[in-house]
Amino acid sequence: MTTEDCALCAGSEMDDALMRTEVWSDSLWRLTTAEYTEVAGFSYLEPRRHIADITELDGEEAATLGSTIAATSKAIKDSTGAELVYVYVYGNGIDHLHIHLAPWREVGSPLVDEMIKGNRHIARLPSGAEVLVSDRYPLVDHEISLAAIDDIRTRLNSSG
Ligand SMILES: [Zn+2]
Questions:
Q1: What are the domain boundaries of the chain?
Q2: How much distance in Å is there from the Cα of 50 to the middle of ligand 1?
Q3: What is the pTM (predicted TM-score) of this model?
Q4: DSSP for 84-150?
């Protein structure tokens, strides 16, 4: 995808089609809020510059993301009376980084904090600990999890 055919690179030109309204922006970021939504205040934070996904985040956008999420989610929380603001980044829908900021409350919210599809059940691990696991997607082999832990740690801590 190029910036010419990217719906989010079009900025405010696409807001009507995407049924959202810009509520804040600066030279790097835009925040828009959904006009038709199950959760009033559900918003999208996206860089003005085309950054395909979170793994390509760099430059000034990388330097300012934390303070920008904090300020925008605080406004959403205060405005909606939410107890929390969920932060979601998916990336397989539109090929331009966009961060979902979703006001959440304990009672009456349609939003869930589950990451795995389908029903779950309680399983007992060899250690005796109990965990919730998916009926459809069993836990991966423990050795595979440990290998991923080791590999990610190595990538982030190797010098060079
Ligand atoms: Zn784009």
A1: 3-104, 120-157
A2: 4
A3: 0.88
A4: EEEEE---SSSSS--EEEEEE-TTT-------S-S-EEEEE-TTS-EEEEESSSPPPPHHHHHHHHH
